[in-house]
Prior knowledge:
This protein is an alpha/beta fold. The protein has helices at 16-24, 45-55, 70-84, 100-111, 127-135, 154-160, 182-195, 252-263, 271-282, 284-308, 328-331, 338-350, 376-390, and strands spanning 32-33, 94-97, 117-122, 138-143, 166-169, 198-202, 228-233, 246-250, 321-325, 352-353, 355-356, 367-371. It folds into 2 domains: 7-42 and 286-390, Alpha-Beta Complex (Aspartate Aminotransferase, domain 1), CATH 3.90.1150.10; 45-283, Type I PLP-dependent aspartate aminotransferase-like (Major domain) (Aspartate Aminotransferase, domain 2).
Amino acid sequence: MRAPFASRLSHLPAYLFQELDELKAQIRGDLIDLGEGSPDQPTPRPILAAFTRALRRTENHRYPTYAGKARARQAVADWYRRRFGVVLDPDSEVTMLLGSKEGVAHLIWGVCGPGDVVAVCEPSYPVYPNQCRLAGATPVAVPLEERNGFLPDLDWLSRHAHRLKLVCINYPNNPTTATARLDFYQTLVALALKHGFYVVNDNVYSEIYFGAVAPPSILEVPAAHTCCVEFHSLSKSFNMAGWRIGMAVGNRQLIQALLKIKRNTDSGPFGAIQDAATVALRRGTRLTAAIRRMYRQRRDTFCTELQKAGWPVAKPEATFFVWARLPDWFRARKNGSRSWAFVERLLLSCRVMAAPGNGFGAAGEGYVRFALVQPEAQLHKAAVRIGRWLNSGAN
């Protein structure tokens, strides 16, 4: 009997969140899960009401269109104009997705293949390097270092630009929580145009920010439409992770490459979900403001309690994650993965689940990521448990 798996699967490492699920399964009792970034709150009522109405429309019981409904794409274009001042053609520069994860995968398959080199920031969401490997392309890690504000080194990109087909970035960033300013995007777009590579920005956390200035879109750079695509999702902004609805916007040739894969793979998002997404985008400012306030309060409660316990964890400026450098006594360990060992100790000693930094790539070693996806009281309890453990002398 021949091997049941394609040879390309041998190039994939174990998937981080599956490994975390297996680790959690070993724990019984009062586990506080801060591992995966899955929002815990319900989708806002106006969106649910729109979905209920949409279920009664006969048009939504048929196959959806590949690129998405015209009114959904128009809602995306209108939202981008209001939020970022970016003008998009809804017919050629917008497509609806079954979540941004699917879109990233299909874009990489549509643009990259054997012999192509893709620059992937590290640490990063595992989908970027893994989809490059599945497509036969070569992912090259661009380390994100704390001393550079967890932004990719533009000098490195400039030196290696001649061999790059695609550069994948993600700001506001998962897992590091870093944000990028418009001047960074301007320099990156100028490099792309000079050397002929394309840029993908995953901007799904743009609405979860805590400073006075909202994170920008790379498409605010006028020339970006010639070489850039941006992904967005309603998962985080509207607590719609399970709905699987997102969008890709930007360069029309890249959008067509993505759609060519989609047409041969799926039939687009369920029409009723697109109708609900349309309402979400049209009413977005009020709904996302409430969600943003909730995450700010959670951030402050969790980080302040850890700081009181003597762990100098920085409060993030964006996303619903906390990216924390391991305590010095743990970082000093020489053997094995310190990040994984720390996560295991948290789980066994505190019954708190986190994600190891090196699960997002080797450059994440020495860090741990907490997702603020539990009620504030649970986050306070988790931080108190961690603080007691850190100060117990048992470490």
